[in-house]
Backbone:
């Protein structure tokens, strides 16, 4: 039987609350506490996909708490309408979202939830993509020398490839070496190992730390206005395909406008908060 949990973990010397969401009731409580009663200003986001195609987890991070939403387990109980509400909160226009190579995550989401594509294509629900930002900086010789001054001179071309890795950027900007051993693990295996959980939330946290360092260095070097121009060029949103993705046929749970009923639990639809 799935069980929600709240534990404490230490990442890069700081203690964080780690919230594991596996049940509809746990998801309701989490959304109410962290997205309705209060709301993060900045949110690191990432996902894990089984065999790199089937969305299994969605990870969130702030400077205070980390969260893993277990898509694999929750999809047995939630309807498309439920998931719409969940992602409307995560992609709230007032929240600054940060990800890495996030077009891949968009792809995982649209495969799992094709009905979300129109919402994710709205420009005000965009994501600051650090891989895009890295490429923009690498195209500017002055900015490159400031932000990526720690690049390995023996292998600088690695950073210019289209598949710039998060590990590359983390090492170059923060001098933090990411462990990627869990990347190809079985993300549909339950229960998740502690190593999988830490790996998942670390990637959603590290993007916040990288963004803060890059932004501070750009401001120091070029001033606030030029730094903002760099950041703006890194903003992405879901690109609708020419052909609409096929919506999966799945059991739907009828809901009211205010409350999403999931068994004996509910997800409050407070989309304006």
Residues:
């Amino acid at each position: 039987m799935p069980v929600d949990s709240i534990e404490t973990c230490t990442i890069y010397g700081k203690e964080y609350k780690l919230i594991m969401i596996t049940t509809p009731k746990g998801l309701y409580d989490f959304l109410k506490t962290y997205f309705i009663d209060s709301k993060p200003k900045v949110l690191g986001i990432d996902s894990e996909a089984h065999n790199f195609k089937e969305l299994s987890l969605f990870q969130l991070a702030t400077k205070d708490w980390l969260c893993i939403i277990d898509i694999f387990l929750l999809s047995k109980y939630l309807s498309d309408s439920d998931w719409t509400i969940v992602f409307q909160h995560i992609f709230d226009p007032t929240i600054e979202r940060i990800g890495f190579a996030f077009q891949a995550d968009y792809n995982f989401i649209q495969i799992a939830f094709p009905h979300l594509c129109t919402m994710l294509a709205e420009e005000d629900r965009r994501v600051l993509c650090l891989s895009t930002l890295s490429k923009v900086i690498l195209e500017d010789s002055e900015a490159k020398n400031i932000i990526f001054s720690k690049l390995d001179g023996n292998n600088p071309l690695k950073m210019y490839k289209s598949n710039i890795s998060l590990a590359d950027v983390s090492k170059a900007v923060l001098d933090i070496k990411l462990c990627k051993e869990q990347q190809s693990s079985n993300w549909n295996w339950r229960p998740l190992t502690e190593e999988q959980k830490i790996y998942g939330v670390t990637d959603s946290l590290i993007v916040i730390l990288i963004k803060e360092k890059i932004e501070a260095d750009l401001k120091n070097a070029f001033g606030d206005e030029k730094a903002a121009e760099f950041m703006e060029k890194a903003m992405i949103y879901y690109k609708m395909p020419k052909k609409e993705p096929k919506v999966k046929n799945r059991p739907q749970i009828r809901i009211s406008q205010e409350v999403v009923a999931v068994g004996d639990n509910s997800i409050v639809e407070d989309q304006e908060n």
About this structure: The chain has one domain: 5-268. The chain is about 40% helix and 20% strand.
